[in-house]
Amino acid sequence: MNYFKSTQTKKLVTLPAWRSRLLFILLLAGMGILILRAAYLQSINNNFLQQKGNARSSHVMAISAHRGMIADRHGEPLAISTPVESIGVNPQDVEVTPQQLNQLARIMSMDIKEVKRRLLDTTHDFVHLQRQLPPAQVEQIVKLGVPGLLLQREYRRYYPGGEVTAHLIGFTSVDDNGQEGLELALQSQLGGKAGSQRVIQDRKGHIAEDIANIRLPKPGNNIALSVDSKIQYLAYREIKSAVEQHNAQSGSIVVLDAQSGEVLALANWPSYNPNNRTKPSFQVLRNHAVTDLFEPGSTLKPFTVATALEVGKYTPDSVINIENGVFRIGKHAIHDTHPKKTLLTVSEVIQLSSNVGAAKIALSLSPEMVWRGLNDSGFGAQAGSGFPGEAAGKLHDHTKWKPVDQAAISYGHNISVSLLQLARAYTVFANNGELKPVSWLKLDKPASGKRVYSDATAHKMLAMLERVVSPEGTAPLAQVNGYRVAGKTGTAHKVIGGHYSPNRYISSFVGMAPASSPRLIVAVMLDAPAKGQYYGGIVAAPVFSSVMGAALRQLNVPNDKPLGNILMPPTEIVREEV
């Protein structure tokens, strides 16, 4: 047997010496570059590493500005800001265990999925978990020791008056910006400007060091309103009681300083608590006294009569034939509710609130004269108070009036006003014919007004309006013990869906006292009283009397009539309706 032995020759590959030397040189050069780079960053250009470190441990935090306080005319706080803490997180730094996640959701009363979503929202550098927490909750959250959580100081608005001043003051948002009422109207003065600062945090999210203030916060200004807190409470209490007593849909009241036009009180019922962050319904939220319009009824008659006196067409003793209480204009008939006489003087037209008398006086004037008297008294335009949503009312162009329109306007139909607008208009009778501007802010001295009527006309009208609250007038229930009162009732059918409702009314009274030198004007309106009584002299006049009497005593206004001056009619109160 032959055995052949094969041999395999292995070829060895030998690398050139220059390649190994090149590789060594490249490795050596790379190490040198790294050493030089490290030396450069740590000694020459160390800002780079500092910035990268800061990006992971330092943050810019907003510093909330302290919102200015709102106070009444005597310095009593009506809106103040208290410090609170908000919980936020930097999602890139947060480290949370499932147990901590459950505890966070429980303490903040939030859905665990929502908490998790915010914690993992890496699209933002800062995310709020919950705003304006009570101290007890904040303390529980801090004890959890969750890395990445941040505490942010903010301010929450508190309203000591609650529902008493709700419609007047309004409220702020969670960011402390005005949302309603004077909080919104005065935002630019109250708000201030937020600041910011850079801070360093440790790995658990705790602030270890304040680096610098980037911008200091600028606090808002404190503001003193014209409002008197004690009179505000009186007004609120009485309008609430009247709405509940008469089962009305709502009610509003305005109290003005007759000499300066300052708003001393304004209230509506129903109201709401601005300290409760649950937003009330739109209807409850509305400031009806400023934003809502209604037909004023007979409270407008004094302006028709004043215009007639001003142009010399009538005197208080001029006689009007009221046609036995029925006056026809074409196919339309105007009625007096309880005609007492066939002939009435102009003073008695106001005292007994004769629709026929007012219509005949208006029709004896040109449409432009009637319109001018109303327009100059502030109707058909905003009162200029600057309150958000303030209504201008509706006063149609006189060139489009028909005779029946002119007659209807004389007794407060075919025109719409706000209660604030109506109260302001009565300043012409309290200030010798001068219309005063309305002010929510405390004034150092009364603002100058606009001349509408002469002194003589204003004085004659005051005397006529005093007769309204006599036992023979439509508002003996408006009398105030120890003071002379001048005012006017209104009872108008409510407009619903463009038509006058046969059995729903707007009941109102506007008056001033003391009549010898008016200090206060009080306007009252009840919307749709529903317990049988709806005449302004029976429903609204008692509210006026209660508020006016208490307010005058509160202000120490001297009596201009002996105590015990109140006299009631021997039979029933004269009633009026349009």
Q: Which descriptors apply to this entry?
A:
alpha+beta; Penicillin-binding protein 2a (Domain 2); Beta-lactamase; 2 domains; 5-stranded mixed β-sheet; 5-stranded antiparallel β-sheet; 33% helix; elongated
Describe, in plain words, how this protein is organized in 3D:
A hairpin with a 5-residue loop joins strand 6 (195-201) and strand 7 (207-215). The protein has 21 helices and 19 strands. The protein starts with 16 loop residues before the first helix and ends in a 24-residue tail after the last helix. It is an alpha+beta fold and 578 residues long. It has two domains: 60-107 and 127-199 and 207-224, Penicillin-binding protein 2a (Domain 2) (Alpha-Beta Complex), CATH 3.90.1310; 229-554, Beta-lactamase (3-Layer(aba) Sandwich). The radius of gyration is 38 Å and the shape is elongated. The strands form six sheets. Strands 2, 3, 4, 5 and 8 form a five-stranded mixed sheet that branches. Strands 10-9-19-18-17 form a five-stranded antiparallel sheet, sandwiched between helices. Strands 1-6-7 form a three-stranded antiparallel sheet. Residues 3-8 have low confidence and may be disordered.
